[in-house]
Amino acid sequence: MDGIAVRAADTYGAQETAPLQLKLQPKGTPFAAGNCYIVDTGDVMPPGTNSVIMIEDVHSSGFVAEIIAAASPWQHVRIIGEDIVANELVIPEHQAISPVDIAALMAAGLETVQVLAKPCVAIIPTGDEIVATHRELKPGTILDVNSHMLAAAVREWGGVPHRHSIVRDDPVALQAAVSEELLGSDIVVVNAGTSAGTEDFTSEILGQLGEVLVHGVSIKPGKPVILAICGGKPVIGLPGYPVSAMLTAELFVRDVLLERQKLPRAQTVQIDATVVRQVASTVGVEEYVRVSVGNVQGKMVAAPLNRGAGLISSLTRAQGIISINEAGSGLNAGSVASVRLLRESRPDHNILAVGSHDLALELLGIHLRRRRGDVSLSCANVGSMGGIMAIRNNEAHMAGIHLLDETTGRYNVPHVEKFLPQVAWRLVHLAMRQQGLMVAPGSPKEIRGLSCLMRPDLTFINRQRGSGTRMLLDYELNKLGISGDRIDGYEKEVGTHMTVAASIASGTIDVGLGVQAAAKALGLEFLPVASEQYDLLMNFGGSTRRL
Predict the structure, then answer these.
(1) Last residue of some domain: 260, 278, 308?
(2) Which of the two residues, 83 and 253, has the higher pLDDT score?
(3) Could you give the count of Cα atoms lying within 13 Å of 192 in the half-sphere of its Cβ?
């Protein structure tokens, strides 16, 4: 503290109505009653003094310092030994060293300390179909995203990842790779090759190198997990699908890493939320379902995302996970489930859009984050009718819909009036869009319109029941007198326009109905079928104020 050093007893009686004057002396002058000395923060107290008065409370002139308040002993003075003394514990063993811990260690004179080394985790991607870069991609190959994802997770959990080069489906090569990584790593993770296929050798190889403790756990996704000990070190085999790999890494790899660092398990936040649609599950398997979460008019709501062990998008869009007990057969719409929140999820700051998919919603979410960094937009694609039901049940802030009424030829309003007679709803027009057939560039199979869908040489991909696109397709087919059972692939359903477009771009499907924006995004040919109105439906009783 910058000020004057004084003997507290010399200041007694000083007050605003009766200021007291002290003699300013140069440092080094022997102390005498009534003396004071200028001091700066960090200075040693002059002999004979035991208190400091802030310079702001001193009026000085020449060799006189005038004060208007008495000082107490040891005021603004740090005493040797008041913080850390010899043989006192500074921080406990096995505690992660924080910035303030570093300050305490330095103050105690400890310039170096012994620490636990960060665990080294070797990650071995396997598979003949796996390639390292986009340049190597071709039909039948898969880009290695898992090793990068797992490496980032290991860093987040305090470890040091080492990504091994891709190992082909060869038992000799796999054994050599695992043996090599056991020499320099604390933990080895083998990704893929854990199932029971003809080219899945991981369990066999780990059994030769050590002891396989577990092969297969009753969870979904992620059943074919392998837990082994080889050379005294844990070796964990993870499934190859991204969702399965990440889930099982969180369940098994993370805890091993935290234990190696003597750190507590990560704390999780659980909330209860109403499930907006039915979720089927298999009895005997504990299933993990990723969900979007939002607070709709004071009620926490969870919207299940599309499931599938390979759906990377569900990893990035999820705010939480619901665990369905192995004794259960699923969740009913409207039931309440416990949701484990992911990352820094903030349901109260999340706008939940449940309904039909459109790329415009993604753009809307981007602009929202730019304008309001604390608010996000999450979409659950359940189709237009699913969106209307979500608004009716107060399970969404808004729903994208595009429903054609066959009787009047109008979009959206007739359906909303029919299903929401007691709701103060509002429709906000978002976009006019073209729906049409998406085909490969140049239309190599010479597809000209909906009537071509009956051809035996074509494969079709459909949208889910209840979606506006599905209703439009059925309406147009009915006008042409075409039954869905005459179309190869009519029963194959997906949840988004981009999934339809991606299936065609990959060459596995010939044709599908979707919006022009999806076709343009993936460079597909587009054959217009109809122009439609895409609106946002809101419950004006509460959703609009929330937005």
Answers:
(1) 260
(2) 253
(3) 25
CATH number of residue 466's parent domain: 3.40.190.10
Q: Nearest-CA neighbor of 125 among 283, 242, 3?
A: 242
Give the range of the structural domain holding residue 309, as residue numbers without chain letter. Answer: 270-428+538-546
**Half-sphere CA count of 541, side-chain side, radius 13 A:** 14
Mean pLDDT of the residues in the chain: 90
Condensed to tens digits (0 to 9), the pLDDT of residues 500-519 reads: 999 999 899 999 999 999 99
268-278: string of b/e by CB count within 10 Å (b at 16+)? eeebebbbbbe
- Which H or E element spans position 417? helix 413-419
Regarding pTM above 0.85, the answer is no
In a domain, 102, yes or no: no
Q: Which amino acid is at 404?
A: L
Can you tell me the distance from the alpha carbon of 376 to that of 344, in angstroms, rounded to the nearest whole number? 12
Q: Is residue 364 classed as helix, strand or coil in its secondary structure?
A: helix
Amino acid at 137: L
Assess whether 229 and 286 both reside in one domain: no
Give the pLDDT confidence of 441-487 residue by residue, as tens digits: 999 999 999 999 999 999 999 999 888 899 899 999 999 999 999 99
State the amino acid at position 117 in one-letter form: A
Residue range 164-222, pLDDT digits in tens: 999 999 999 999 999 999 999 999 999 987 765 556 789 999 999 999 999 999 999 88
Provide the CATH number for the domain around residue 404. Answer: 2.40.340.10
Domain-embedded: residue 376: yes
* Torsion sign (Cα): 31, 34, 37, 41: positive
Q: What is the pLDDT of residues 283-333, one digit of tens each?
A: 888 999 999 999 998 899 999 887 765 456 667 788 899 999 888 778 998
SS (H, E, C) 313-342: HHHHHCCEEEEECCCCCEECCCCEEEEEEC
- Residue 353's DSSP bridge partners are 379, 398
